[in-house]
Design goal:
7 strands; 265 residues; alpha/beta; 15% strand
Length: 265
C-alpha cells in the first residue's frame, strides 16, 4: 500500500479512526490534509505527521455547511494541487435513547453530520476527481448501517444512509476512473465508543464493554489501526476491482446471531 506522491484528504482527522488513518496515509508516503471541527485537534494530527517527517496541512470545518466543505476542498487544492484519496469520515454518535424518547434536535444534528456531511463531501470532492478521471473515496459507515442497534435510531439511520450514498456514488462515477466504498467498523476502542458506554451505564461503563466484547467472536474491541488498514486498502490500487462495497471491521460481530442482537455500538 504505497501512497508516495498521492494526496489524501481526511475529515474528522483530529481524533480516533480519522487521526489514525491520517497518520497511516502519511507513513506510507501520502501528503495529508487533516480536517476537523476542532481546529486544535486537526493541527495536532498534522503536527504529528510533520514531526515524523511527513507532509501535512490542516483546516477547521463544519462538514454540515457547504461553504465550509468548499473551503476545505479549496484549501487542499491550494496546498497540494489535487485530491487522490478522500476519507469521508467525520461523524457523531448522538444520544442513546429509544425512538419513543429520542430528542428531535439531537436526531437532526446526527443526520446533518453523518449524512449531509458525507453527501457534501462527495458533492464537492467528486468534481475534482472527475476532472482528472482518477480518485478513491472511502466513506465511514458502521455495522449500525447493516443491522439495528436498539437505542440509537439517529445513528443507525444515518449509517444506513451512508451505505446507500456510497452505492449511488459508486454507480455514478465507476466509468470515470473513480471508486467509492464504505468501511463499517464495529466496536472500536475510541472516545466515541467510550462515550456511548458511559451513556448506557453511567455507573459502570466497563460492564457495557464486557457485554459488547462477549458479543464479538474475536472477543475484543477493534483498534483504530485495524480500521485504518482497511481504509488504506480500499484507497489503494490493490483494491482496483472494488467499488460500491461495504467492508466490515467488527471481529465477526455481525456474522454472529449473538452479535446482531447485542446492544448498540
Amino acid at each position: 500500500m504505497d501512497f508516495t506522491d498521492r494526496i489524501a484528504l481526511v475529515t474528522g482527522g483530529g481524533n480516533g479512526i480519522g487521526k489514525t488513518t491520517a497518520l497511516a496515509f502519511a507513513e506510507r508516503g501520502a501528503s495529508v490534509m487533516v480536517v476537523d471541527l476542532d481546529e486544535a485537534a486537526a493541527q495536532s494530527t498534522a503536527h504529528a505527521i510533520t514531526q515524523a517527517g511527513g507532509t501535512a496541512s490542516h483546516t477547521a470545518a463544519n462538514v454540515t455547511q457547504a461553504a465550509d466543505v468548499q473551503a476545505y476542498v479549496k484549501a487542499t487544492l491550494d496546498r497540494f494541487g489535487r485530491i487522490d484519496c478522500f476519507f469521508n469520515n467525520a461523524g457523531i454518535a448522538g444520544d442513546v435513547a429509544p425512538i419513543a424518547e429520542y430528542d428531535e434536535e439531537v436526531f437532526d444534528r446526527v443526520i446533518a453530520v453523518n449524512v449531509k456531511g458525507v453527501f457534501l463531501g462527495m458533492r464537492h470532492v467528486l468534481p475534482v476527481m472527475l476532472a482528472r478521471k482518477r480518485g478513491t473515496v472511502v466513506n465511514t459507515a458502521s455495522v449500525a448501517g447493516l443491522v439495528g442497534s436498539p437505542g440509537m435510531p439517529a445513528y443507525v439511520a444515518s449509517k444506513h444512509a451512508v451505505i446507500g450514498l456510497t452505492k449511488v456514488a459508486a454507480g455514478e462515477v465507476s466509468g470515470e476512473g473513480i471508486r467509492v466504498n464504505a468501511v463499517c467498523p464495529g466496536p472500536i476502542d475510541t472516545r466515541m465508543v467510550h462515550d456511548i458506554a458511559a451513556q448506557v451505564s453511567p455507573d459502570d461503563p466497563g460492564a457495557v464493554r464486557r457485554n459488547y466484547e462477549a458479543s464479538i467472536p474475536l472477543g475484543r474491541y477493534g483498534t483504530p489501526q485495524e480500521v485504518a488498514n482497511v481504509v488504506l486498502f480500499l484507497a489503494c490500487d490493490l483494491s482496483a476491482n472494488v467499488t460500491g462495497a461495504q467492508y466490515v471491521v467488527d471481529g465477526g460481530r455481525t456474522a454472529s446471531p449473538k452479535g446482531v442482537t447485542a446492544k448498540p455500538t
